[in-house]
Amino acid sequence: MQDAFSLAGLVVLAFIVSMPCGYLRESFRKFSFPWLLMAHLPIPLVYHLRHLAGFDWHVIPLTLTSAIGGQMLGGWYKRRVRRGRKASERVP
User: Fold this and answer.
1) What is the value of pTM for the model shown?
2) Which UniProt keywords apply (predicted)?
3) Does residue 64 lie within any of the structural domains?
4) I need a labelling partner for 3 at 20 to 30 A (CA). Which of 14, 30, 69, 91 fits?
C-alpha cells in the first residue's frame, strides 16, 4: 500500500513540475533551443525523484505520461491567457 501512495505522489509531482515548463515553452518558437530545454528540463528531476522513491524503470511510462500531460496543460493555459479569455467568459 505504501508503494501505491509513493507511486501516486511521484506521478502527481511529475505532472506539477512539468506544468510551468509547458507554460514557459509556449513562449518560444517550436523546436528552438529554449523550447527543447523547457520540454526536457523536468526529466532529470523526475528521474531523481523516481530513484529516491525506490522505483525501477517499470514506472517510466506512468511518469512520462504524467509529465507530458503537465506540459500540455501548461501550454494550454498559456495559450488561453494569451487570448485573454477568463474562465468566467466561457461560451457554451
Assistant:
1) 0.83
2) Membrane, Transmembrane, Transmembrane helix
3) yes
4) 69
C-alpha cell at 16: 506539477
Single-letter amino acid code for the residue at 33: F
Alpha carbon distance, N-terminus to C-terminus of the chain = 42
Residue-range definition of the domain harbouring residue 22: 2-80
In terms of DSSP H, where are the helices of the chain?
Answer: 2-25, 33-40, 42-53, 60-83
The grid cell for 14 is 511529475
Confirm whether 90 is domain-assigned. Answer: no
Contact 81, 27 (CB under 8 A): no
Tens-place pLDDT, residues 76-89: 999 998 888 665 66
For 30, list phi and psi in degrees, rounded to 5. -60, 135
